[in-house]
Sequence to fold (1005 residues):
Amino acid sequence: MNSADLQLNLHPVLPELLMVAATAAVMILDMFNRKGRTPTKAALPWVALVGVLVTAAASIWLIGQPVSSFQGMAINDTRAQALNLVVLAGAALTILLSIRYIPNVNRQTGEYYALILLVSAGMMAMGSATDLMALFLALETFSLGLYILAGLNRTDLRSNEAAMKYFLLGAFASAFFVYGAAYIYGATGSTRFDLIANALFDGKADPSLLAIGVTLLIAGFGFKVSLVPFHMWTPDVYQGSPTPVTAFMSVGTKAAAFAAFYRLFAFALPSEQATWGPVLGALAILTMTLGNLAALRQSSLKRLLAYSSIAHAGYILVGLATATSAGIDGALFYLISYAFMNMGAFAVIILLERQGEMDALGNRLNGLAQRHPQVAMLMSIFMFSLAGVPPFAGFFGKFFVFAAAVSGGYSWLAAVAMLNSAIGAYYYLRIVVNMYFAEPTEETRIEPQQASIPLAFALGISAVFTVALGVLPSLWTNLVQSGALNLVAMR
Amino acid sequence: MTLSIPYLLTIITFLPLVGAAIVTLVPGDGAKKWLALATTLVTFLVSLLLWTNWQDGYAGMQFVEDVVWFAPLGIRYALGVDGVSLFLVLLTTFLMPIAVFYSVLYVEHRVGAYMALMLLLETAMIGVFVALDLVLFFVFFEASLIPMYFLIGEWGGKNRVYAAVKFFLYTFAGSALMVVAILIVYFSTGSFDILALQKAQMPPAVQTWAFLAFSLAFAVKTPLFPFHTWLPDAHVQAPTAGSIILAGVLLKMGTYGFLRLAMPVFPQAAEQFGPLLATLAVVGILYGALVALMQKDIKSLVAYSSVAHLGYVMLGIVAMNAQGVSGSILQMVNHGLSTGALFLMVGLLYERRHTRMLDEFGGLWASVPVYTGLFLVVAMSSAGLPGLNGFVGEFTIMLGAYNYMPIFAVLAAAGVILAAWYLLTAFRKMAQGEITNPANDREHLKDLNGKELAMVIPFIILFFVIGLFPNLFFDKINPSVEAMLETRAAVLQQATAAQTPAFELAEIIATEAQ
Fold:
């Protein structure tokens, strides 16, 4: 071991450290609360928000100074920072959505915000991990936090069920992951991505052990990003969790798991691409098709968005099947777009929920446009963007991801995905039809809540970015510029 | 010395968008209406600068703007007009004020949203015709769906929601594969530049698949038989102004796509599938005309006549010779004007009688002579009477089709006869004979007033101008068409030249191996 290995460079984990610091700050502040002397409760979300923003600034500052540290277990390249920004955008919007919502669900708001920050830290670590052990650590950090968040509403049976289901299946997924990691270690003699890649390159690996290992890892990731056939938990957990948590889950988990997914396959297993590329392609097709077909039949808005999120996982996987840098950059653009449009959609659902409710049926949107034209217009923007209609961000998300697929020789996959997005258009459009062209009945006519200022702000930000990224996609790519997303170089 | 105006095309394209924003912000329905009308009028006047500053005889793109839009993929914000697109832009800016003025008079429900959507639609439509980058083209092409969807769904007839959803999903699904085709083309040529692509050589397999995907998108939009089934629903349910724009401009996006992209960018595949497309076009001409003959609702009659008329346009485009293409371009304008005017006339009658059933009318000559006379002119323009605009376009297309494959010209000519038949039948049922229904008599039915005449007269003037002085238009269209066809011929020649030696070489190797 030389001296360079011993040097502890904290740069790669600076954003994660900041998030942990913010977590600590929220928890300490919350302690004062319990004594009932200083009313710090109202300040908690804002402290958390400041923590998120400071971390985002640090992430942006780190762009362009990539360093590997912890003996090659973590790296802070631009893609890690891009992932950080996706997660942080999701966390910031979640906090804004929670300010009025969470106190109605659970009084321990301090724990809630602390957990959101800690979970974010775990998600961010997923993107910078370059070692199976570090990756597992990150995976568990964010998963454990999310299990608690899913069951936040202790008096609601559905919330309990969601937490239980999520925990049990998540534990299985983690077990699969560890088991797969063990097999890969057995096959290659290392858990570090670069050493795994070297071992494979030298032909030293045992192919059957490796195959089992990779299969188990795919299963583990498949659970986290809800790929078919590992998606069973998604609708129930999405429906049962408090809505801001669902929103956060749909954006953050997906982003983190996909970033790690990519890094593992592109850094550790590039030589095996010909084997697992088609497997991922097949999984992508299964996932998007089943997600879309199931979404067609949903009446609950949260279940609909759950299946829609499964379908979107399928689209993103298309970009990863090629394991090119264009694929991951496309996927990251997709994820940041998805963060804004999906967060926006969930914000509207929160407005539609009655006191104490944690879901809303689609027909509650009926006639919304007449009573609340602004909300209906924003929701339409989110829906058209999710469907992939230009000039909204969702279109370029699909365009970049499918471009990577076509450049990697997966035109057939891109074609199937586009046909799928035409199916998807139907159920997004149905929401628009409900809002604009359907008359509310007595039963479904429920006045949406008056939006709180933070929620209105979150809605506005989501809509602005959904449009802005659709009109000027370079806003994002310039920010996380690294000469990446350079498909021309890929040709 | 002509004045050069920087960013003229950007101004024309996005002026309506700015107008839409203002319309949303100002209070009061009256103000919204007049602001929307003012926006479309100003856009029209500004677009006339394209005509006055036009460089005659120049075949390439004029008023070009070109900035990087998304550098990593080389996507550009590139705009320009040439003889192929000039009149489509002008058609759009001409039809919009009329459609909006009609709406000013007759739309009362949620005026602000309606006007804003009309203006958004105008931006998308102009954008399609001036875009020189494939991705930019696609963005405008798809973006036009959203405002039209809302216009049909909110302000349409009884079945409006069904029609709106069908319209959206049909066209969205049709263009889904085009995205993949665009990417395949990009990765085989390295460019999204439409003009560069027209000159590029592409492998035959790429051409075939990409051509089919592009054609599907445009065939649905045009609509080409058998992809037309969304059209009658959309047309019959759309509000009058929506129908004018849908028939007048939106359908042209499909034929324009064939003309600008599918046919010249994939010349070999286009040659291969040409006869198939021509057959579909002719089937559309005859089928559309025959179905139109059976219609009892005037609006669906006009809708089916659109299927027939766009069959002609397609036939001329598929012919890919100078007469065919130039005729098609003029015929796109003609169809926009004639059918736009027909929908306008039908709408004006509907506002009075709240029915469009032919049986409900009769004897209108006696009660509303001005209306009836103008209706006859419009119908004759649509039927292709010599001296009016329709004749010039159809005749030129026939020439082109005859040079391509005579059988198509012969069959298409039968369509002209059918067109005269269904239009005259409709006219006879409406205008001639005794007044059988008291609602049609002079006391109940008012003739056109000044405002309504102001909408109809510009159409009539243009019918005669195009019909009598077609060269005013052909002079601007032809150079660009000829240049495009020359490029295409050169690309085709190169492709055959490149293939032949390889083929011979393979033969030589094969013989030597023996």
About this structure: Chain B is about 75% helix and 5% strand. The longest helix of chain B spans residues 471-513.
